[in-house]
Amino acid sequence: MSRMYRIALLIAFLLPLWLFACKGEPTEPDPQTPPLVAAAEAGDNARVEQLLSIDATADVRDHCAWTPLMRAALGGHYTTAERLLEAGADVQAADKGGYTPLLLATSNGHTRLVKLLLLHGARIDQQETTEGLTALIWAARRGHRDALVALLDAGASTGLRDRQGLTALDWARRKGHDEIVALLIGRNDPGGVRGVRSERGSP
Asked: Which of 32, 139, 142, 157 suits a disulfide with 147, CB 3.0-4.6 Å?
């Protein structure tokens, strides 16, 4: 086996692990995490304000390329996110897997934050790079009705498909979120309903 082939195999094995470790699941604290990222993750507004007064750079990143705004969005810390945006945080910053603040906020059903990020120009139909999920697909998949309605009201496309070929409607049906199914059918893009899958089950 050639050296280059062994290296390629190692990369193929390690890359999914690397991406999984940076998808926002609880992990052990990293001593190298920038203080502003840690403060935003905790929703510590006083600490965020103090740190910004010392250094106004709002887009520092941790080892997973997460910015303070991304951490605040995931945790649902509205006031923290609002302050970071005022300080110039990039609403479209993405981590190693292509996750933006909007995708992270939607995945946990933080509707007020979804609206705030959209107001500041977040791209509504952005697809992350690991599974091809959009914010609307996340909302449908996890049953976050209010976040889904906010996205639909803002013009989110219902016809986009993830890497499995599934739309938001497909996921709502699979997960048994009947109210969301009805909402999506009522607002589907032309052609978006045709050919969708109606089976329920996992993933």
From this structure: 139
Range of the domain at 175: 132-203
Per the listing, tokens 């909402």 go with 183
Q: Domain ends where: 93, 123, 153?
A: 123
Q: What is the total residue count of the chain?
A: 203
pTM for the whole structure: 0.80
Q: Which two three-digit tokens encode residue 163?
A: 């890497």
Three-state helix/strand/coil letters over the chain = CCHHHHHHHHHHHHHHHHHHCCCCCCCCCCCCCCHHHHHHHHCCHHHHHHHHHHCCCCCCCCCCCCCHHHHHHHHCCHHHHHHHHHCCCCCCCCCCCCCCHHHHHHHCCCHHHHHHHHHCCCCCCCCCCCCCCCHHHHHHHHCCHHHHHHHHHCCCCCCCCCCCCCCHHHHHHHHCCHHHHHHHHHHCCCCCCCCCCCCCCCC
- From 123, 144, 159, the end of a domain falls on 123
Q: Tokens standing for 78?
A: 């509205």
